[in-house]
Amino acid sequence: MSDKTPVPAGFVGVAGNIGIKDPQDDFFAVVSQAPAVVSAVFTLSRFAGPSVRLSREAAADGRARGVTVIARNANVATGQIGTADAREVQEGVARAAGVEPDDILIASTGVIGRPYPMDRVRSYLAGLPAEFPPADLDRSAAAMMTTDTHPKIATAKVGGATLTGIAKGVGMIEPNMATMLTWFFTDAELEQPVLDEVFRRVVDKTFNALSIDTDTSTSDSAAILANGLAGPVDVGEFEAALHEVALKLVRMIASDGEGAGKLIEVRVTGARDDAQAKRIGKAVVNSPLVKTAVHGADPNWGRVAMAVGKCSDETDVFPENVRIVFGDVETFPTEATDETLERAAQHMKGDEVVISVDLGIADGAFTVYGCDLTEGYIRINADYTT
Amino acid sequence: MSDKTPVPAGFVGVAGNIGIKDPQDDFFAVVSQAPAVVSAVFTLSRFAGPSVRLSREAAADGRARGVTVIARNANVATGQIGTADAREVQEGVARAAGVEPDDILIASTGVIGRPYPMDRVRSYLAGLPAEFPPADLDRSAAAMMTTDTHPKIATAKVGGATLTGIAKGVGMIEPNMATMLTWFFTDAELEQPVLDEVFRRVVDKTFNALSIDTDTSTSDSAAILANGLAGPVDVGEFEAALHEVALKLVRMIASDGEGAGKLIEVRVTGARDDAQAKRIGKAVVNSPLVKTAVHGADPNWGRVAMAVGKCSDETDVFPENVRIVFGDVETFPTEATDETLERAAQHMKGDEVVISVDLGIADGAFTVYGCDLTEGYIRINADYTT
Q1: CA A209 from centroid of its chain's CA atoms
Q2: What is the pTM of this model?
Q3: Residue B305: which of A112, A171, A336 has the nearest Cβ?
Q4: Is A179 an active-site residue?
């Protein structure tokens, strides 16, 4: 709380409580004082909400000025009213910030199927300050939480530039191309096409490698805004920093998965190609039987074999070439002994469980992230709302 | 217990305890005294065990004499020893029954990665009676249980013939073409190609419409043996009876899903074709968020919309054409009121929850079956074994 996370130059903003559901912060807007380039990716859901549609349009020209989020209501499946409401929020924030509505990305997260309480939204927007103070990204990260237990924020320096990312998301996470809500702000100067290429590559290896519960949200959004105020940076260095910050956020999200007690990292190697490694990794990290075994710190490697095996389209996978390792303990094909199983169980009692699967085909590799499945997930979701 | 389920003419067998793990029955063999035709389908898992491979070969010529099952050990991922052991069981049963080993289907279910305790298996097989008594299918159904809470058996008459099916399975169930273990015995007379066609069609609409937890077993097997002793039957009537018996078993399995409290039936209509309806139905019935909402009797239809929406390849699905109904209560697009949500919640408090989704495209339809996700599933699977 005391140490604020660094904010890149030129980003101002507000965060506060509209009163969507309770007295906690449920709103933020972060806006760049200078024009910025943007790259953004969104959910592929057929039930994508109006916020996703408006943000997609806002980002389409590669330029944007800011991001605004309302939490505790997803504004999804709310029909034409939902679209009008989202547009009104976008316009209200843009007016206060003195920018064009089409330069504001908007997102919303929470329960599906209920309109915003627009009376409260309107009076909140009307009260926004004429001049935004410097952005408080820690508070902004907190303002978008739903069942998150803590805000997620990470930062890095790239030459003279600052890169800070915030994220939220604990359930309904199986990004197909983007993920929950995550926003990156930087004062680095990058050409938009370069930023776009770098961002998509990083998202694919980080947020798209994450799965909490196989359920893809209707609202997944990820974007990065670069306003260039800190001048040009080395693109390779920038990509490395972005990857590092994104991976930190992904690990925070996985560890904070609904009811989760442990981060699961599944490293697949020896695949035909990276895409196959990713498919197999997803099958393992999403398997309820693997997830519950991790919860119970049970080195039941047979369930990993099962999860690999259920990828029945991967006809070049043969059990006799597969190797399964928990931590650094091989459990297959080397016959597991009581001693090795005990060592594997010890590894699984930690906060981070690493399961390595080598397919013995070629050198494709991919690492995916997830979490264990616990009674807590059931409790949270059996009566989340309605 | 008192009323035994009818057994078709000519089927003899034994059931008992080998001592694989505990003193409960863990073995059965059912053999037809007359030659029988067979149709069988098996898991598509790349880690399919030796029992599946031997049974596939045994059924390949369309003729078989019997089925044997060992429970409490899957004999999967046990290497060449596992194959030799399975073959020895197949041969031991065949010898006792006086038939060819290649006419005995074999299956095994339980923990993966441990060899059978062959000393006990051998002494048990050596003690099999020289002549098998009439089959006891109730006891056989019980002998293959693992975490099942009760045996699953159903029967029907077709003209003068009897058809009885038994099944086991509570977890690791997402059949891709077959399912857990299920065996059908009949004294009806059918040509093998006809039996095969009918069986595959029925399996596709019943066992392949079932999903407990998306995890496909390494051992899924389903077969039907018809020995013809009751003479010919009307094929249409036979298919109807087989469908009825299979569906009863499917509903028993779903209701008895690990930790499950409720059967979930998802009826998808208005799809482009039946296959699309099945994909959407599976997405809904497998969604952890839908499953936990059902557990909590929470008519959170937004999660059903999410699950439909995450089928992002179904580009002809548009929210404005979708209809979502819990029981007989429409919750979308008709705006749900407190009164309708209360009625939907009442429906969800029952043992069987029906969720209907109409896609408004064409007339494709498919119904799938599953169960809720509860703390019990976590408890059972967090420390099942090792």
Answers
A1: 10
A2: 0.80
A3: A112
A4: yes
The encoded tokens of residue A168 equal 């939220």
Q: Where are the domains of chain A?
A: 11-256, 263-383
Residues 340-369 of B with CB under 8 A from A: 341, 345
The ipTM (two decimal places) reads 0.76
Contact B167, B11 (CB under 8 A): no
What is the C-alpha to C-alpha distance for residues A15 and A136, in angstroms, rounded to an integer? 8
Q: Provide long-range contacts, Cβ within 8 A and 24+ apart, for A122-125.
A: A122/A88, A122/A92, A124/A16, A124/A18, A124/A19, A124/A27, A125/A88, A125/A89, A125/A92, A125/A93, A125/A96
What the block records as the tokens of A146 is 């739903």
User: Is the CATH number 2.60.120.10 carried by domain A11-256?
Assistant: no
CA B56/CA B177 separation, integer angstroms: 14
Nearest in space to B217 (alpha carbons), one of B6, B364, B75, B33: B75
Nearest Cα to Cα of residue B359 among B274, B265, B263, B264: B274
Q: Which of B16, B159, B2, B181 is nearest to B93 (CA)?
A: B16
Asked whether this chain's domains B11-256 and B263-383 adopt the same fold, the reply is no
A-chain residue closest to B305, CA distance: A47
CATH number of the structural domain A263-383:
3.10.20.340
Residue B279: CB partners within 8 Å, gap ≥ 6? B311, B314
pLDDT at A111 over 70: yes
Q: Would you call B2 exposed, middle or buried from its count of C-beta atoms within 10 A (0-12, 13-18, 19+)?
A: exposed
Instruction: Determine, for residues B77 and A215 on separate chains, whether the beta-carbon distance falls below 8 Å.
Output: no
How far is A361 from chain B, CA to nearest CA, in Å? 14
B residues 290..309 contacting A (CB < 8 A): 292-293, 295-296, 298-303, 305-309
CB contact under 8 Å between A375 and B379, yes or no, is yes
* Subunit contact B307:A215, Cβ cutoff 8 A: yes
**Nearest of A288, A213, A331, A214 to residue B384 by alpha carbon:** A288
A39-48, A231-240, B289-298: the lowest-pLDDT one:
A39-48
Over its length of 386 residues, how does chain B's per-residue pLDDT go in tens digits? 458 999 999 999 999 999 999 999 999 999 999 999 999 988 888 888 899 999 999 999 999 999 999 998 888 888 899 999 999 999 999 999 999 999 999 999 887 888 999 999 999 999 999 999 999 999 999 999 887 888 999 999 999 999 999 998 765 555 433 237 889 999 999 999 999 999 999 998 898 888 766 666 677 788 999 999 999 999 999 999 999 999 999 888 888 877 778 999 999 999 999 999 999 999 999 888 899 999 999 998 888 998 898 888 899 999 999 999 999 999 999 888 899 999 999 999 999 999 999 999 999 999 999 888 888 888 877 765 54
* Dist. CA A309–CA B39, nearest whole Å: 24
**Is B166 in CB contact (< 8 Å) with chain A?**
no
Q: Which residues make Cβ contacts (< 8 Å) with residue A342, sequence separation at least 6?
A: none
Buried b (16+ CB within 10 A) or exposed e, A231-252: eebebeebbebbbbbbbbbbbb
In angstroms, rounded to a whole number, what is the distance separating the alpha carbons of residues B146 and A25? Answer: 49
Helix (H, G, I), strand (E, B) or coil at A25: coil
